[in-house]
Design brief:
Blueprint: H1 16-19, E1 29-30, H2 33-42, E2 45-51, H3 56-66, H4 69-78, E3 79-85, H5 90-104, E4 111-115, E5 121-125, H6 130-146, H7 148-168, H8 178-189, E6 204-205, H9 208-216, H10 219-234, E7 248-249, E8 257-258, E9 261-262, H11 263-279, H12 283-300, E10 310-311, E11 314-316, E12 322-324, E13 330-331, H13 332-338, H14 344-350, E14 363-364, H15 372-379, H16 383-397, E15 405-406, H17 411-428, H18 431-447, E16 456-458, E17 466-467, H19 470-487, H20 490-506, H21 538-553, H22 556-568, H23 570-575, H24 581-591, E18 594-599, H25 603-611, E19 618-623, E20 642-647, E21 650-651, H26 658-669
Parallel strand pairs: 1-3, 2-3, 18-19
Antiparallel strand pairs: 2-4, 4-5, 6-7, 7-8, 9-10, 10-15, 11-12, 13-14, 16-17, 18-20, 20-21
Helix pairs in contact: 4-6, 5-7, 6-7, 9-10, 9-11, 9-24, 11-12, 11-17, 17-18, 17-19, 19-20, 19-21, 20-21, 21-22, 21-24
Length: about 675
């Protein structure tokens, strides 16, 4: 094999995404303080390109522009070219994404920014065809040479706009009333898709935070949550053969995925489907959870128990070229070769090998409109036949070239997966799920948690370590609280407390109740993440964590801080309810938070039984023996198991029978 014609500084990077660009003719370097100092000394514009390993359009732009010698020459001559993996440095991604949204009203990846030597953005966009890219870079370079003051003035105005946005997040507005929440929910309800589920339009993201909000209320939105989950689980977005969800659907009916598979998506969806199963036990929900966990175990789990970041959207096709979805799609010839001839009719009907399931280039994406049990009954074929189909398809698929793996192990994403596995264990009592959850928890604690609750972002590579961001702290605290309430081990609660204390000391400054996304740094603007996206905002998660820890540890000032944090988002929830769905559910929780304390020899068994019920907004405190934690004080009676139910800091008399507890209390809980 011939050696590459070009090699740049990214060859020394640990990031799989950055290494993908190591043989571009562009003189890429990583973001670091030395690079910024060099740009200032030489008065060179920064060309900052941000993406991630599983990003299809990042790969397209690389092939069209960054591998092209003409384009590279223009970039190298006029810019200091910096490549950033957004998953390594979400702080940089947030700053420049906010700048791009102010510049153009758009966002996405690849994220391409031109900035002054001091890092202040002046221009940006996402994907550009080659000629458009050349023209834009040439014009900006000319402007920098001929009218530098104009660029500096524009950069200053942009930073002022960004600082104004950040200041606006600190306003403590009038608190939300029940009527405000109802109005916000009704506005969301006007935009739901009654045919395919989710929200109207395309592309469609699964948005677990939004579905969790719908699940927490009754009526139409609760029904729509389950309708949406059913459509997602049946659609092509879910890989029925191997398990796991792709990041989003390019169409409105969840048929054609953007084939990248991300750890953070699948962790949250395991949790969402597991919680949905408690409200509405469904064979489809059980199938989705089990297959998705199997996907994580088989494809993303590291030998130490942690989970890698993602699988690429692209894989090598039969012609030896990278092609989106090549690993996942099927043509008619393959199907008829794999499946018994006598079963072709049923297979094609079940997976819609027809105009409904056809994609492009005569390829089909398996797309169901009926769950396996109903199809089996209606067509008088055994369920085992469907299992054999999927097993045979998987064997065939595994002979194909697999998508590239991004083997970063990211602290916050592992915490999301850990919470998903714990929720699945609660719902299904499967020891495999517990074992995987314990492996994940152990990996986070050993590899990421430092002294005094400090966290690292990524810790499976050699070389310099990246400090954790608020996302890592918020998701890890949640995961360890979930672990305490699922596995009944005080160690996890104390670990969550330690990480929370570090967060309060290092991510909060000034009078604002909100947390910064990163510790103090040299960025033009320090951001506070508040809007809920596919991952809940780190501030919403922190507010929820403080509420839960305040209950378990009796720290009233943490509860008060969380209430203040919620008040800052009142106006945003009124105006943009779907973008603040985790906050909305949290504020509803504040009005109806409850505690179940079970202490005595049967405590763990009773807790496991109760946790499989559709109970919302509960803190669980479980102990077999005497405990010094506040919720257990004075409640242990030798030889007895007692259940205490508390609401708004008032507790009912304890009961010593789980049957009696269900009869007397459950109507108030479900």
């Amino acid at each position: 094999m011939s050696s590459p014609s070009y090699t740049n500084a990214l060859i020394y990077s640990q990031s799989p995404y950055l290494k993908q660009h190591a043989h571009n003719p562009v003189d890429w370097i990583e973001w670091n303080e030395e690079a910024i100092s060099l740009a200032k000394q030489e008065n060179r514009l920064l060309l900052i390109s941000i993406g991630y390993a599983a990003c299809h359009w990042c790969h397209v732009m690389e092939r069209e522009s960054f591998e092209d010698e003409e384009v590279a020459s223009l970039m190298n001559q006029n810019y200091l070219c910096i490549k950033i993996d957004r998953e390594e440095r979400p702080d940089l991604d947030q700053v420049y994404m906010q700048a791009l949204q102010l510049l153009s009203g758009q966002g996405g990846w690849p994220l391409n920014i031109v900035a002054l030597p001091d890092g202040r953005a002046v221009w940006g966009g996402t994907y550009f065809p080659k000629e458009n890219w050349i023209n834009a870079l040439g014009q900006i370079a000319k402007l920098h040479t001929e009218q530098p003051l104009k660029l500096r003035k524009y950069a200053g105005q942009l930073v002022e706009g960004m600082l104004e946005i950040e200041a606006g997040k600190e306003i403590i507005d009038n608190p939300l009333s029940d009527n405000d929440i109802d109005i916000a929910l009704s506005r969301i309800e006007q935009r739901i898709d009654p045919v395919w589920g989710g929200m109207k339009g395309a592309p469609k993201f699964m948005m677990p935070t939004l579905i969790r909000l719908w699940m927490s209320v009754g009526g139409n939105l609760n029904e729509h949550a389950h309708f949406s989950l059913e459509k997602m689980g049946l659609g092509g977005l879910f890989d029925v053969v191997e398990g796991g969800f792709s990041r989003y659907s390019v169409d409105e009916r969840w048929h054609v995925p953007h084939f990248e598979k991300m750890g953070y998506d699948n962790g949250q969806l395991i949790e969402t489907f597991s919680l949905a199963y408690r409200q509405k036990p469904s064979a489809l929900y059980s199938e989705v959870v089990e297959k998705t966990i199997n996907f994580l175990n088989d494809n993303l789990k590291s030998p130490e128990g942690g989970f890698y970041a993602s699988l690429d959207a692209d894989s090598t096709n039969l012609d030896g070229e990278l092609e989106e979805g090549a690993f996942y799609v099927w043509n008619l010839k393959e199907i008829e070769q794999i499946i018994k001839k006598s079963e072709h009719k049923y297979f094609k009907k079940y997976y819609n090998i027809n105009s409904l399931g056809k994609w492009e280039k005569d390829n089909f994406i398996l797309f169901r409109t009926q769950n396996a049990k109903d199809f089996s009954i209606e067509n008088k074929i055994p369920l085992s036949t469907i299992s054999v189909w999927e097993s045979d398809l998987l064997k065939y698929r595994l002979n194909r070239s697999k998508p590239r793996l991004d083997d970063k192990i990211i602290c916050g994403w592992n915490a999301l997966i850990g919470s998903g596995l714990l929720a699945a264990y609660q719902s299904f009592n499967n020891p495999k799920f517990k074992k995987m959850a314990l492996g994940c928890l152990e990996n986070i604690e050993k590899k990421f948690v430092q002294k005094n609750g400090q966290l690292l972002r990524i810790n499976n590579f050699e070389g310099p370590k990246i400090d954790g961001f608020l996302e890592d702290y918020a998701t890890s605290i949640k995961c360890f609280i979930d672990a305490y309430e699922t596995l009944f081990d005080n160690h996890f609660l104390l670990l969550a407390k330690s990480i929370a204390e570090y967060s309060l000391e290092h991510f909060k400054t000034g009078k604002s109740p909100l947390f910064y996304f990163s510790k103090a740094n040299a960025l033009p603007v320090q951001t506070k993440e508040t809007n809920d996206n596919v991952i809940p905002s780190s501030n919403a998660l922190m507010a929820e964590n403080l509420i839960r820890l305040a209950v378990h540890l009796d720290i009233s000032e943490w509860h008060q801080l969380a209430v203040k944090m919620c008040k800052t988002q009142a106006n945003e929830i009124r105006n943009y309810p779907s973008a603040y769905s985790y906050w909305s559910r949290l504020i509803k929780t504040l009005k109806s938070f409850k505690e179940i304390v079970i202490i005595g020899p049967n405590a763990e068994d009773w807790a496991k039984e109760l946790q499989r019920l559709p109970i919302e907004n509960i803190s669980w405190a479980i102990s077999k023996d005497v405990s010094e934690l506040p919720l257990f004080k004075g409640r242990f009676k030798p030889g007895k198991t007692l259940i205490y139910y508390c609401k708004n800091k008032q507790c009912n008399l304890p009961v010593d029978s789980i049957i009696e507890f269900k009869a007397s209390i459950m109507r108030d809980l479900i």
